[in-house]
Amino acid sequence: MLPKCRVGSLLLIGMLVFINGCEKKPDNAWPDKPGKKVLTSFPPIHCFVINVTGDAAVVKPLLTTKGPHGHGEKTPLELKLATSCDAMFINGLTIDDSIGSQIKKATTNTNFNLVVLGDRLDKNKLLEGACQHDHKNEGHADHDHGYDPHVWLSASLARSMVASIRDEMKRIDPANAAGYDERAGKYIAKLEQLEQDGRALLKDKTERKIIAFHDSLQYFGQCYGIKVEGFIQKEPGTEPSRGELDELIKMCKEKKIRVIAVEPQYPRNTSAQTILSELKAAGIDASFVEIDPLETADESELSPDLYERKMRSNLENLAKVLR
Ligand SMILES: [Zn+2]
Ligand SMILES: [Zn+2]
Predict the structure, then answer these.
(1) What is the homologous superfamily of the domain 204-291 according to CATH?
(2) At what angle do helices 306-321 and 177-202 cross, to 10 degrees?
């Protein structure tokens, strides 16, 4: 048997080795693999990028469970990744620009390129953003609503984003151009099929109005023929006031809207519950439908089929509820 003090010092050495091992992690931020080092912001952007790059590049996401709406200072690991990355793809249109500019500031690579996918979309296809101000009687003259940033939820705009990713990867890595072309082509075809299947799934529905949980579903609605008449959270993460809830409930009654989209990240949201029960109390057969806007996902879920799989399940959920 070892004397007590030796057990103690062995334990101490073990702990130091362990702590040291943890601290060393940022040094190995990028795996030692060939290929361009690429950062992405939140899950759908990451998914589009890995479908284009395949194994030709090393791709890391920065916002997984945090989501794009509001994000604080970067962690040491993220800054370490920034120093040696070749490109970063973000959605832009103000939703994830802050993380993009922080990474741009932190990088030491003079060839680094921040690719703002939303800026490369046809402006005629962009929709106006939601008003997040409270002004019942005043107009909107003193402020501008900008563009709605939730472009990835339209399969058609998603295809344009994939094409921009392909073009940029070919530009920074011409040696692998043929591979980028081939993979992007296959993925764009899958997104075309997704759009067709989604439309076919909903084609016999006479009910096409819903309210959304936050202002995320305009492009989704436009793509699949659904009208989003209102939303519960004006600002993501901020609950509506009682007055705002009353307005929404009144509108649902007037326009005969009974389907309320909820996001899986907020399964038992009290505002959504209130709307549902008050519509039911008024004799309306209200129902929730789970639609994931894909703003967050666990890192373990970030497989190439993430976007298609989640969008298909969103569409199937809608098809089950709409009449
Ligand atoms: Zn306004
Ligand atoms: Zn959003």
Answers:
(1) Nitrogenase molybdenum iron protein domain (3.40.50.1980)
(2) 10
Q: How far apart are CA 19 and CA 267, in angstroms?
A: 37
Ligand nearest to the CA of 131: 1
Please choose, from the candidates 40, 47, 96, the residue with its C-alpha nearest in 3D space to the C-alpha of residue 69. 96
Whether 34-128+147-197 and 204-291 share one fold: the answer is yes
How far does the centroid of ligand 2 lie from the alpha carbon of residue 142, in Å? 23
SS3 assignment for the chain: CCCHHHHHHHHHHHHHHHHHHHHHHHHHCCCCCCCEEEEECCHHHHHHHHHHHHHHEEEEECCCCCCCCCCCCCCHHHHHHHHCCCEEEECCCCCCHHHHHHHHHHCCCCCCEEEEHHHHCCHHHCCECCCCCCCCCCCCCCCCCCECCCHHHCHHHHHHHHHHHHHHHHHHCHHHHHHHHHHHHHHHHHHHHHHHHHHHHHCCCCCCEEEEEECCCHHHHHHHCCEEEEEEECCCCCCCCHHHHHHHHHHHHHHCCCEEEECCCCCCCHHHHHHHHHHHHCCCCCEEEECCCCCCCCHHHCCCCHHHHHHHHHHHHHHHHCC
Predicted TM-score of the model (pTM):
0.89
**Closest ligand to Cα 132:** 1
Minimum-distance ligand to the CA of 151? 2
**Quick one: which ligand is closest to 237's CA?**
2
CA 164 to ligand 2 center in whole angstroms: 22
Domain residue limits, the chain = 34-128+147-197, 204-291
pLDDT in tens, 30-60: 998 999 999 999 999 999 999 999 999 999 9
Residue 231: per-residue pLDDT: 93
Across all residues in the chain, what is the average pLDDT? 90
CATH of region 34-128+147-197: 3.40.50.1980
